[in-house]
């Protein structure tokens, strides 16, 4: 049994989508970050970086924080969504790290400036808008002629999709990135993606792309 401590963010959805794709039993523990629940002693005992999501594997007692580490841990534990062939594995890891180091952080900053504090820092907004557009172009180029980011559906797709689902927050029109749009809509048809999006609670209609 996996315990998932999470909230309704792209990072949280990476893990709930993965757990739904695995088809395993897991228990959800909402951590309302708007109310500071990530700062409680109870949460810090398993997630010392004050960030969701965190999992606790009841089989081993191990707690794991940081979404990249969690995705790799689950993929290796259950033998799914991460190839064992060295070249194929390196490709998935490459794009997972691209999300961790680029797409996620830049889009997160875009949320803060472009959506939540518009007009307060025009130079920063312009820089973030341009960088986010560049990252979408990188992904669009990668997806040319591909169904998934790598050869098969993998944790790289699960890591990137929840961030792209907030394209409106990034001031991005997916019509400008047709390969991303097709990939986004393709994954949206997966039942596990739909269910994972609404963990720990239903937040309304999923953006359709």
Textual characterization of the structure:
With 209 residues, this protein is of the alpha+beta class. It has 2 domains: 2-81, Glutaredoxin; 86-190, Glutathione S-transferase Yfyf (Class Pi), Chain A, domain 2 (Up-down Bundle). Helices cover 52% and strands 9% of the residues. It is built from 8 helices and 4 strands. It has a 4-stranded mixed beta sheet with strand order 2-1-3-4, covered by helices on one side. The protein is globular. The model has no long low-confidence stretch (mean pLDDT 97).
Fold topology:
Elements lengths: L1 E5 L3 H13 L3 E5 L10 H4 L9 E4 L4 E4 L1 H12 L7 H31 L5 H21 L12 H10 L13 H11 L2 H7 L12
Helix pairs in contact: 1-3, 1-6, 1-8, 4-5, 4-6, 5-7
Index terms:
single chain; 209 residues; alpha+beta; Glutaredoxin; Glutathione S-transferase Yfyf (Class Pi), Chain A, domain 2; 2 domains; four-stranded mixed β-sheet; 9% strand; globular
Question: In a nutshell, what does this entry contain?
Answer:
52% of the residues lie in helices and 9% in strands.
Q: End-to-end span in angstroms?
A: 34 Å
* Topology order in helix (H) and strand (E) letters: EHEHEEHHHHHH
Strand order of the largest sheet: 2-1-3-4
Globular, elongated, flat, extended or rod-shaped: what is the shape? globular
Please give the CATH architecture of the largest domain.
Up-down Bundle
Strand segment count: 4
Radius of gyration over C-alpha positions, nearest whole angstrom: 17 Å
Please give the count of helices: 8
Summarize the main sheet: 4 strands, mixed
Q: What structural class do you assign from the helix and strand content?
A: alpha+beta
What is the domain total for the residues? 2
Content of β-strand: 5-15%
Q: Give the fraction of residues assigned to helices.
A: 40-55%
CATH level 1 name of the largest domain: Mainly Alpha
In the CATH hierarchy, the third-tier topology of the largest domain is known as Glutathione S-transferase Yfyf (Class Pi), Chain A, domain 2
